[in-house]
């Protein structure tokens, strides 16, 4: 810039222009620096937004996965409930069939000579409770709280520990002692006059068919055999083979 300068005026003049150029360059440099800072800030903001979008996407995918898991769980639960409902219906149908079979057996026994003799002697007196415990299910129509299936319950269920002695509700003759389908181990006693009692789900039986028993005599033990959800005594009273409410006799 100073090559070929011959006088002081030219030096001063060129120095002035050089100063102007440098100031312009500095201003341009500062502007570029500010623009760069703004760009860096915008880039950082975009990166943060990108990270937020990525996190949101991951959360959405996780939520979707959890929803799919919950749907699968609900589907499995519903499938299990349906399977259990079908099994419950099957069990009730078996018990109904067994109940009809017992009714037919008792009616058939009444036609035998021995049955005619028992039928000719009207039953009198009262029954005692075969076991002591809370009645968890009564006689009559009952509806399942989940499956909403309404069926006849032909006796009463008395809760008791497994092995608790079961006593004869009244004196009479044992007309059946053994296994009967959904009833499990069963004892049936004919008390005369067409009245009989049934003791189901026993863990053990202590009497035999044809044996005479007295009121209060131990005939079996509480259990959970057959179609049972836990230890209890299913107790029935039957008149001419048909179930009637045991509480009317106790």
Summary, kept brief:
This protein has about 250 residues and is of the alpha+beta class.
What distance lies between the first and last C-alpha atoms, to the nearest angstrom?
130 Å
Strand content: 15-25%
Low-confidence runs of at least 5 consecutive residues: none
Number of domains as seen in the coordinates: 1
Largest sheet: 8 strands, antiparallel
Q: Could you name the CATH topology?
A: Glucose Permease (Domain IIA)
Q: Under the CATH scheme, which class?
A: Mainly Beta
Count of individual helical segments: 2
Gross CATH architecture: Distorted Sandwich
Query: Could you give the count of β-strands?
Result: 13
How much is the radius of gyration in Å? 46 Å
SSE succession: HHEEEEEEEEEEEEE
What layout of secondary structure does this protein have?
Blueprint: H1 8-110, H2 113-120, E1 135-137, E2 140-143, E3 150-153, E4 156-159, E5 165-167, E6 172-179, E7 185-192, E8 195-202, E9 204-205, E10 212-213, E11 218-221, E12 232-239, E13 242-244
Antiparallel strand pairs: 1-4, 2-3, 4-12, 5-11, 6-7, 6-10, 7-8, 8-12, 9-11, 12-13
């Amino acid at each position: 810039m100073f090559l070929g300068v011959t006088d002081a005026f030219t030096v001063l003049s060129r120095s002035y222009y050089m100063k102007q150029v440098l100031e312009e360059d500095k201003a341009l440099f500062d502007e570029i620096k500010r623009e760069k800072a703004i760009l860096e800030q915008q880039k950082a903001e975009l990166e943060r937004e990108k990270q937020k979008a990525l996190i949101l996407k991951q959360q959405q995918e996780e939520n979707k996965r959890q929803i799919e898991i919950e749907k699968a769980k609900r589907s499995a639960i519903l499938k299990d409930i349906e399977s259990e409902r079908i099994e419950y219906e099957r069990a009730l149908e078996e018990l109904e069939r067994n109940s009809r079979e017992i009714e037919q057996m008792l009616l058939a026994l009444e036609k035998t000579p021995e049955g005619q003799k028992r039928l000719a002697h009207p039953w009198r007196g009262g029954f005692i409770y075969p076991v002591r415990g809370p009645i968890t299910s009564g006689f009559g129509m009952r509806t399942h709280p989940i499956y909403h299936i309404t069926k006849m319950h032909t006796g009463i269920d008395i809760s008791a520990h497994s092995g608790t002695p079961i006593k004869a509700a009244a004196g009479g003759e044992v007309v059946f002692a053994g296994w009967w389908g959904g009833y499990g181990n069963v004892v049936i006693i004919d008390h005369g006059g067409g009245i009989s009692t049934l003791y189901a789900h026993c863990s053990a039986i202590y009497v035999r068919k044809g044996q005479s028993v007295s009121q209060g005599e131990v005939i079996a033990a509480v259990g959970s055999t057959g179609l049972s959800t836990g230890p209890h005594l299913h107790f029935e009273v039957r008149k001419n083979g048909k179930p009637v409410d045991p509480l009317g006799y106790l």
